[in-house]
Amino acid sequence: MSQNISPEERLFNVIKAGRNPVRAEAPAGVPPADAPAPFLQNINLHAVNEGLMVCLACLAALGGWMFFSKKEIPLQQLAELPVEHVPAVAVEKVEAYQPVSAYLQQVKKRDVFRPVTAGGASPAEIPAAANKDFVLSGIYMGPVPQVIITVNPDQKAYFLKEGDDIKGYRVKSILKNKVVLQRGDEEIELL
Predict the structure, then answer these.
(1) In angstroms, what CA-CA distances link 161 with 101, 131, 178, 183?
(2) Which of 22, 36, 164, 189 is the most buried (most CB within 10 A)?
(3) 146 forms bridges with which residues in the sheet?
(4) Do 142 and 149 meet the contact criterion of CB atoms below 8 Å apart?
(5) Three-state DSSP state, 154
(6) What is the pLDDT of residues 22-79, one digit of tens each?
(7) DSSP output for 90-108
(8) Other Cβ atoms closer than 10 A to 170
(9) Residues 6 or more apart from 170 whose CB is under 8 A from it?
């Protein structure tokens, strides 16, 4: 009679019996694949969950206590703390701060395209006899480096590559931060 049972009826009988039709029976002595690990079988998960809830409540209480019981330590008490274990550090005198307007005036006076040297003067302020006619306006470091040089008397800008001539000088080299012009043995660096 089991031969005449449809697949649907067979599935219904398996579900009714409470067996898993997909799971193969494991050999004797081997636990099924979906069985918990042996060391987890004796653990009471309800007790573990309660313990974790107690820990969470303690942490929340500690956090609340720390948040609401902030105490400020007066600077006088900090100054009176022992400092034997702290090494002495040489502290340079800090100059007094000026109002923001004073700093803005200093910035407005400077040319942002001319860096300040260690001596405090920008390279444009350093007197140079041959340098006075040429002003470096820009440097392009592309596949073919180019430079923009403005000539002072007529304020005309020239776009030059290495080897080009300007007012009797030849562009010897173009670097990231300067250009070297050459006429005979004389060289001029434009910064």
Answers:
(1) 42, 19, 13, 16
(2) 189
(3) 140, 161
(4) no
(5) coil
(6) 555 656 666 666 666 666 677 888 889 999 999 999 999 999 888 888 776 666 666 6
(7) --PPPPPP--HHHHHHHHH
(8) 15
(9) 163, 164, 181, 182, 183
